[in-house]
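=== Structure Prediction Worksheet ===
Name of assembly: unnamed complex
Input type: mixed (protein and possibly other molecules)
Chain count: two
Listed entries:
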Amino acid sequence: MAKYAFFLGCIAPLRYPGVEKSTRVVCEKLGIELVELDDASCCPAPGVIRAFSRTTWLAAAARNLALAEAKGLPIVTICNGCYGSLFDAAHELNNDAEELAKVNKVLAEINMEYKGTTQVYHFAEVLYKEVGVEKIKAAVTNPFEHNVAAFYGCHFLKPSKIKDLEDPEDAHMLEALIEATGAKCMPRKQPMLCCGAGGGVRAGFSDVAKEFTKTNLENIQASSANYIVDICPFCHMQFDSVQKDLGFSIPVLHLCQVYGIAMGMSEEELGFSAHVVPVKL
Amino acid sequence: MILTEIKANPEFEAQLAKMGGADVKMCFQCGTCTADCPSGRRTSYRVRKLMRMAQLGLKDEIVDCEELWECTTCYTCVERCPRQVPIVDIVIALRNIAVAEGHMLANHKPTATNLYTIGHAVTVTDKVKEQRKAIGLPEIPPTVLMNSNAMADLTKILKATGFDKIVE
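=== Predicted Assembly ===
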């Protein structure tokens, strides 16, 4: 059975707990064992904290990586931001002895050492490569037969030079994962357009972030999709929180919630009360 | 911003290189980045111009410009750059230099403060505690939020890397 240290991050557990809950339930159904990564912190956020201090970002990320290393487990995340942050940090530290030594000087202050062995995976990657679409299809008891918009976000596939998952200009992985539930992904204009929230833009210039989201919502609406399905709680929050102001009302679901629905979780357990845009199934 | 006079800043190139932005010199100003930039469609942020300003060492202009913070780090420019310039890494390096000189957006302070005080980017609300409980999750997730010793460790790391000064 596949076994991972479950990196929670911030937005899923503290803003959309239904995303965390559905991940736990779905993993159990698919035979993925999630081990708590006790004492972990924010990844830290790649667009803000890393932009303030790379040194702080790398050291705090190394602490999270070292916690997983101590358990001898790879990390799985359900957020593009956490994935981007921890993957980048691991890529840097696992391949650069000099940087690793510098970070370990900081970690020595708390009697910790990172040896540079932790691997970091996004949940969607684990589902696609390790579980496989056929096994997911077999676990579906309540098909999610709706037209949806697949929303990759930016930091799952990019930068592709180091991630090497799929060509971000011609990606199919997320569509395959969503369609395993019986849903249909509707083609649309600019499918890889950023939600607008990243890089500190949501906090720094919320009107600019909204402009990105608005274009996405227009494209999604024009494609006749009735749900937005994301793999990042930060994109999720951006889409969910600004629609009211922009005059849209397209329910936003994380892939884990769609799987939760398709695998028979109750509406209460899926945590829809935390959503701003009402989710009526 | 209109560039009227350029005073070379030789120290800047070294500083930027130290922060991970050495490859800015690879940029040959083709403009693919600006043409593809979704932020540039909506703001006055121009990636090519920022790269040129960095090459020219226009530190004072860079650290003071709002556009530096309008990049969402979507990596479209990085994917399409014919010179494989790690543009987002350079933007991050430039932001680090700006922050070190006290140029941080007021709207970004709360996120930094949250990390420093509770170890997460967002606060814990009573509402989310209720929601977590209602769906069978512990009220507080098993992170630094649940262990003051772990939070003390994180604080030591943040202080050792000078983050306390950024928060103040």
